[in-house]
């Protein structure tokens, strides 16, 4: 009777992650942003309201579409800012301090954006994972999925399903180690996304941050 409540995954961490991306955008110079630096926060907040309402009213299709729309907008904004930052390197228009802060903000943004994508896409999305109850198959092989039934009972993980923090941890490891650590990637789409995330992370850390402190 309590199993279902255990698997009702809260959505606020994913929304907070996108709002945090909007906050990180404030650290970027105006020249590296689409429109005002504060614009992303109200855009995400406005879209979050109908997303939450759709979830509360059981309209899973609308909730999913609006969720994809939110993450897509944030992703496009991140890629655009990264492109502008790369173009700004040869012109030396931005100060080393601004470049360093921008690189750090985009590096963290990269983690939050891809964690959001992994959370929304893996195994059909959060709602599909809730309906299944126990997570046994997906694009990522989490350590809990490899436990035998006896170990799961001992650890209280019989009804385990990944939450946003699991995908955030996966994205963080990908951006720091440039590859997953304890979670193998199984699906082709997930492998492509992990490679893209690692490439963006490598670019911001190795190129942009290095240029900002005058190493290059």
Automatic annotation (TrEMBL):
The keyword Transmembrane applies. It comes from the Bacteria. The keyword Transmembrane applies. Keywords: Membrane, Transmembrane, Transmembrane helix. The chain crosses the membrane at residues 12-28, 34-53, 65-87, 99-119, 159-178, 190-210. This is DUF1345 domain-containing protein. It comes from Granulicella mallensis (strain ATCC BAA-1857 / DSM 23137 / MP5ACTX8). The lineage of its organism: Bacteria, Pseudomonadati, Acidobacteriota, Terriglobia, Terriglobales.
């Amino acid at each position: 009777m309590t199993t279902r409540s255990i698997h009702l995954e809260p959505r606020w961490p994913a929304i907070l992650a996108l709002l945090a991306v909007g906050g990180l955008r404030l650290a970027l110079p105006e020249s590296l942003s689409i429109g005002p630096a504060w614009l992303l926060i109200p855009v995400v907040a406005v879209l979050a309201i109908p997303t939450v309402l759709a979830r509360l009213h059981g309209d899973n299709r609308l909730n999913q579409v609006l969720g994809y729309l939110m993450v897509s907008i944030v992703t496009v904004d991140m890629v655009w800012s990264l492109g502008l930052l790369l173009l700004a390197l040869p012109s030396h228009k931005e100060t080393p301090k601004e470049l360093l802060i921008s690189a750090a903000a985009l590096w963290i943004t990269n983690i939050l954006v891809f964690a959001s994508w992994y959370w929304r896409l893996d195994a059909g999305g959060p709602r599909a994972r809730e309906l299944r109850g126990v997570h046994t198959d997906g694009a990522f092989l989490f350590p809990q999925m490899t436990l035998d039934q006896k170990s799961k009972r001992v650890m209280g993980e019989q009804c385990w399903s990944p939450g946003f923090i699991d995908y955030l941890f996966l994205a963080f490891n990908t951006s720091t180690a440039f590859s997953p650590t304890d979670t193998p990637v199984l699906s082709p789409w997930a492998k492509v996304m992990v490679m893209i995330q690692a490439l963006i992370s490598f670019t911001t850390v190795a190129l942009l941050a290095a240029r900002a402190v005058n190493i290059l």
